[in-house]
Amino acid sequence: MSDPATHDEILAAAERIKANGETAPRPGRDPVNQPMINNWVEAIGDTDPRWRAGEAPPAMAQVWTMGGLHPKRDPDDPLHSMMTVLTDAGFTGVLGTNCEQEYARPLRVGEEVTVTTRLESVVGPKQTGVGEGYFVTTRNVWRVAHPDGRSEEVATMLFRVLKFVPREPAPDPGEFVLRPQQNRDTAYFWEGTQAGELRLQTCNACGALRHPPGPACPECGALDRGHVVASGRGTVFSYVVHRHPPVPGRELPILLVLIDLEEGVRMVGELVETDAEKIEIGMPVVVDFRRIDDDLTLPVWRKE
């Protein structure tokens, strides 16, 4: 086994990968299609009539080029190549840190979508709460080809991950928390959890409720925002039992649930104090609040 790469070697590898530029366009398995759109909007609770009439939500751009359950790994993929360099250098932990997407327009049923990827940057080493590591940023571009040969850019994504050397010893279970991003759109929600309230954003113009929060009402487009306090009760619409990979400082399995709230919106959270084998679709749940520190209180769900 060769010695781990040095910092200079890691950055040199990054420059070589960056110099390759964009990958060749990779087509999706299927064209944009109505059945997949139906599944997406049903899971999210998006009732915009456009999504039943031939248009696809812009946020679905990545869906059309996903590789499926057993994707074939492109050996020239920039993210995979850079991850391999860092893994071989001993940076075995991986943590997604942020994702920024921009949409040019909704896609339409029947359109064929391709995606390209390029390596934007590798920054490090940096000391973080989980260990020393490198931040790796890639840029994806989704395009649609037209009969006249024109290639139209329809969406982009900057995706950043941290490749790190896990701290030793590992944090005690329950001490490590991946802190959610807080900004002016979500401040009211986190202020509510600190006060023991589950708050839902509402449009002061038309009264529509929405979650997750955002700057504009998806029903009428108004920017006049307020909030209401939810009852904190709902039922399990869907769930995932996370058994692998390990999560620093957490005991597995972790139960992640999509909750149908009594108010008619859906919310993702963690189900606690419930056996993984006993969770069921439609199971009634109630919100509880887990205080992490003076700045953060997380909503969690318990079987009612």
Characterize the structure shown.
With 304 residues, the chain is mainly beta. The protein has helices at residues 7-19, 34-44, 78-88, 187-194, and strands at residues 26-27, 55-56, 93-103, 107-108, 113-127, 131-145, 151-166, 199-203, 209-210, 225-229, 233-242, 254-261, 266-271, 284-293, 296-303. β5 and β6 (131-145) form a beta hairpin. It is globular, with a radius of gyration of 22 Å. The chain starts with 6 loop residues before the first helix and ends with a strand. The model has no long low-confidence stretch (mean pLDDT 89).
**How does the major sheet shape up?**
5 strands, antiparallel
The separation of the N and C termini measures: 54 Å
CATH architecture of the largest domain: Roll
CATH topology of the largest domain: Thiol Ester Dehydrase, Chain A
Q: What's the name of the CATH homologous superfamily of the largest domain?
A: Hotdog Thioesterase
Helix fraction bin: 10-25%
Q: What is the tally of helical segments?
A: 4
Low-confidence stretches: none
Shape: globular
Q: Strand arrangement, largest sheet?
A: 1-5-6-7-3
Q: How much β-strand is present in the residues?
A: 35-45%
Strand segment tally: 15
- Taking Cα atoms only, what radius of gyration do you get, to the nearest Å? 22 Å
| Element-by-element helix/strand order | HEHEHEEEEEHEEEEEEEE
Structural class from helices and strands?
mainly beta
Q: What count of structural domains?
A: 2
For the record, what CATH class of the largest domain applies?
Answer: Alpha Beta
- Average per-residue pLDDT, rounded, comes to 89
